[in-house]
Write a structure and sequence with these properties.
The chain is mainly beta. It folds into 2 domains: about 5-40, no CATH class; about 60-195, Sandwich (Jelly Rolls). The chain has 3 helices and 8 strands. The chain has helices at about 5-15, 15-20, 30-40; strands spanning about 60, 65-70, 95, 100-120, 125-135, 140-145, 155-175, 185-195. Strands 1, 2, 3, 4, 5, 6, 7 and 8 form an 8-stranded antiparallel beta sheet that branches. It is globular. It starts with a helix and ends in a 5-residue tail after the last strand. About 25% of the residues are buried. The model is unreliable at about 1-55 (pLDDT under 50). The structure holds calcium ion (CA).
Length: about 200
């Protein structure tokens, strides 16, 4: 225990009134009333609200790219085709047939640099999925997600890659759905990277 920590404990023992009168400080060097004024207010995000994008200045490489999916369901209102995954509209969505697994492949048409991915799930989300990048001969895993249990509600997954992923195609292997009677549904896939050189 260092001197400051010891001083803090002595302050606590002496009581808040004595603390304020004497001007004791905690380990941060702030008086109690100063520290209280600096505590940020945590506002819970609404379900499905996109988080603040930490990758400002990047381009959504998936926007209007070629998308190939393993299946599509259009039986219920709101369900739509694969193009809804990359139309830039967070209200239009793709839905698979009502079974797992399924997959989505985004083809950029040429090698691009990918730094992050955001997946905008409808309630029919995946509790397990993997992302793979195409190499010349095979697929290289670049990210995996697994939760033993997820709530059947919209969510946004943001994946930031530790190293740039250079690839012409990205594949999303949707392995297990949140409800076995559902398939998978996403409002949008954003694949973020530097703007490609023409
Ligand atoms: Ca959309």
């Amino acid at each position: 225990m260092n001197v400051r920590t010891l001083a803090g404990w002595l302050c606590l023992l002496a009581g808040c009134t004595v603390w304020m009168l004497s001007g004791c400080t905690d380990e941060s060097g702030s008086k109690p009333e100063e520290k209280a004024a600096m505590v940020p207010v945590a506002l819970p995000l609404e379900s499905g609200t996109p988080p603040v994008l930490l990758t400002d200045g990047l381009t959504n490489l998936a926007l209007r790219a070629t998308v190939v999916v393993s299946s599509t369901a259009t039986n219920y209102p709101g369900e739509g085709p694969a193009q809804n995954l990359v139309d830039g509209d967070l209200t239009s969505r793709w839905s698979s047939l009502y079974q797992a697994p399924q997959n989505i492949m985004v083809d950029f048409g040429k090698p691009v640099t990918v730094r992050a991915v955001r997946l905008h799930w409808e309630a029919a989300s995946a509790t397990s999925y993997a992302i793979a990048a195409a190499t010349e001969t095979t697929w290289k895993p670049v990210h995996s997600y697994f939760k033993s249990e997820d709530k059947p509600q919209p969510r946004v997954d943001t994946v930031s890659f530790r190293e740039d992923v250079v690839t012409s195609r990205l594949k999303f292997e949707l392995q297990r759905n949140v409800n076995p009677e559902w398939g998978f549904s996403l409002y949008e896939i954003e694949i973020l990277g530097p703007t490609p050189v023409p």
